[in-house]
């Protein structure tokens, strides 16, 4: 059994991750089966490193390599590259008849990057029945706001007829591949419409798919699939070579 202990990736003495750059390349990294931290073992086959700082430079490098952070209470920050990765291929997109009708009769307005700050705050505050709390901590909000200022994190906003923000989503441009992070809604279906707007925009820029990281029932109904890490990393690399400009 391959085991990753906290002494290899996290300094218990100082409470910090030793300086180490760059991130391991997931394509040739040997993923451990388990990690040990404070006497407990955690499944680790999806974790590539533990305890690296949530800095803009780390985020830039991580996303380009197909890696993303996900807060877990009680652990130094894990950075993931899942063995099975969820993606949405736009050619396989299935839009339910009810959603098609809603799009046709919709009176809401959609924007890009008009209010990233409020979108990520709303995503952090959204209740999620399958999760205890949120993984979008205050540290995450600060880091992704800075990533947004550098032009790499983007948001879609949904506005009602009165100009109120009622839904949206945000994610990261990983070198021409959009990586969806989170969405929220204050009116029924607002987040679904935000996703449809985003897909239309991405397709207009030559994009054929997006990374959704982890499968959800909603995304599965839209046609999302899971592929193995190796296939995902090859697909990511191939798309990055196209040098797509997804956002101005």
Helix coverage percent of residues? 25-40%
CA-CA gap between termini = 47 Å
Q: What letter string, H or E per element, gives the SSE order?
A: EHEEEHEEEHEHHEEEHEHEH
Task: Tally the structural domains.
Answer: 2
Proportion of residues in extended strands: 25-35%
Q: Mind telling me the CATH class of the largest domain?
A: Alpha Beta
Poorly predicted residue ranges? 5-19
Provide the CATH topology of the largest domain: Aminopeptidase
How does this model look, in words?
- With 248 residues, the chain is α+β, with helices and mostly antiparallel strands.
- It folds into two domains: 79 residues, no CATH class; 155 residues, Aminopeptidase (3-Layer(aba) Sandwich), CATH 3.40.630.70.
- Helix 4 packs antiparallel against helix 5.
- About 6% of the residues have low confidence.
Write a brief structural summary.
This protein has helices spanning 6-9, 56-64, 97-104, 116-125, 138-149, 190-204, 217-221, 229-240, and strands spanning 3-5, 34-37, 40-43, 47-50, 68-69, 78-80, 84-89, 109-112, 153-159, 165-173, 178-185, 209-213, 225-228. The chain is α+β, with helices and mostly antiparallel strands. A hairpin with an 8-residue loop joins β5 (68-69) and β6 (78-80).
């Amino acid at each position: 059994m391959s085991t990753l202990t906290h002494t290899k990736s996290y300094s218990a003495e100082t409470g910090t991750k030793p300086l180490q750059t760059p991130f391991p390349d997931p394509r040739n990294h040997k993923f451990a089966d388990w990690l040990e931290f404070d006497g407990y073992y955690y499944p680790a086959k999806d974790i590539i490193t533990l305890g690296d700082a949530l800095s803009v430079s780390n985020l830039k490098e991580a996303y380009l390599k197909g890696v993303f952070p996900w807060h877990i209470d009680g652990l130094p920050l894990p950075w993931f590259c899942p063995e099975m990765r969820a993606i949405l291929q736009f050619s396989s997109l299935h839009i339910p008849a009810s959603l098609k009708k809603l799009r046709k009769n919709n009176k809401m307005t959609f924007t890009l990057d008009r209010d990233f700050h409020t979108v990520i705050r709303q995503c952090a505050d959204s209740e999620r029945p399958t999760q205890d709390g949120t993984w979008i901590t205050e540290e995450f909000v600060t880091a992704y706001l800075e990533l947004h200022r550098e032009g790499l994190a983007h948001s879609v906003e949904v506005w009602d007829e009165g100009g109120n923000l009622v839904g949206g989503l945000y994610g990261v441009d990983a070198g021409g591949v959009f990586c969806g992070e989170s969405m929220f809604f204050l009116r029924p279906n607002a987040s679904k419409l935000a996703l449809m707007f985003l897909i239309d925009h991405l397709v207009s820029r030559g994009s054929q798919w997006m990374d959704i990281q982890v499968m959800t029932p909603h995304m599965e109904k839209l046609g999302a699939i899971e592929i193995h890490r190796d296939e995902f990393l090859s697909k990511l690399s191939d798309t990055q070579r196209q040098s797509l400009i997804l956002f101005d």
